[in-house]
Amino acid sequence: MNLNEYKKKAAWAALNYIHPGTVIGIGTGSTVFYFIEALSTIKNIISGAVSSSNASTVLLIKNGIKVLNLKKFDQLEVYVDSADEINNNMQMIKGGGAALTKEKIIAAMSKKFICIIDKSKKVEFLGSFPLPIEIIPIAFSYISKEIIKIGGTPKLRKNVVTDNGNIIIDIYNLNIKNPISMEKKINSLPGVVTVGLFAERGADIVLVGDKKGVKILKK
Ligand code: 5RP
User: Fold this and answer.
1) In the CATH scheme, what architecture does the domain 3-124+200-218 have?
2) Among 3.30.70.2750, 3.30.70.260, 3.40.50.300, 1.10.10.10, what is the CATH number of 131-194?
3) Where on this chain does substrate bind (predicted)?
4) Is the CB of 25 under 6 A from ligand 1?
């Protein structure tokens, strides 16, 4: 099983959802890397891209795709990104690449979220992948204590500072029975910037790359 091949298939299939003259929201990670390569083949027909991370910005520029300032937009037609896990309700865990805050902002402002994944990301229940949260550094001890209270095991992601100057805690062993209420609960802790549960605003279309090709899942 070559997961990179599956990621690539899903990424190229996302081109079918790109319309001429639009601005494309761009996620972060190895699957999105393939999407940026694919997008570069039609770069002359789109208006440009807004990026969810410094890493994706570098790749977009390298591929000759015009990067526009996120600040200038309040809505986008489409956002293309991947996930660390996705369930049957198209709710996701994201943030493996530490870009969850901008990813969540762009997801919220986009009419359509196209999630591109290899088949290993599809799960019945979210939570085997440790749930990332971006937090303000001084809140580390307080938030760790609160996470333990709700049954999780918090671990500081070492040597990582986010694009926003914050830190990441990865939460292990969390029982996520109700992703929306867990998203709300963790979001409400003072010091949390963003929780990597994308439950309230999940994906609209999921493109799953596997051996046979690309499966399309819709709401
Ligand atoms: C980055 C993310 C990514 O979408 C997620 O980590 C999946 O990455 P990859 O495509 O490398 O498997 O949420 O913050």
Assistant:
1) 3-Layer(aba) Sandwich (3.40)
2) 3.30.70.260
3) 28-31, 81-84, 94-97, 121
4) no
Choice from 31, 52, 115, 134 to test ligand 1 binding pocket (greatest atom count within 8 A of CB): 31
Query: Where in the chain are the domains?
Result: 3-124+200-218, 131-194
Q: Which residues are CB-neighbours of 130 under 8 A, at least 6 positions away?
A: 155, 170, 171, 172, 174
* Span 44-57, pLDDT tens digits: 999 999 999 999 99
Dist. CA 94 → ligand 1 center (Å): 6
pTM for the whole structure: 0.97
* Residue range 134-188, pLDDT digits in tens: 999 999 999 999 999 999 999 999 999 999 999 999 999 999 999 999 999 999 9
**Ligand 1 atom at shortest distance from the alpha carbon of 96:** 6
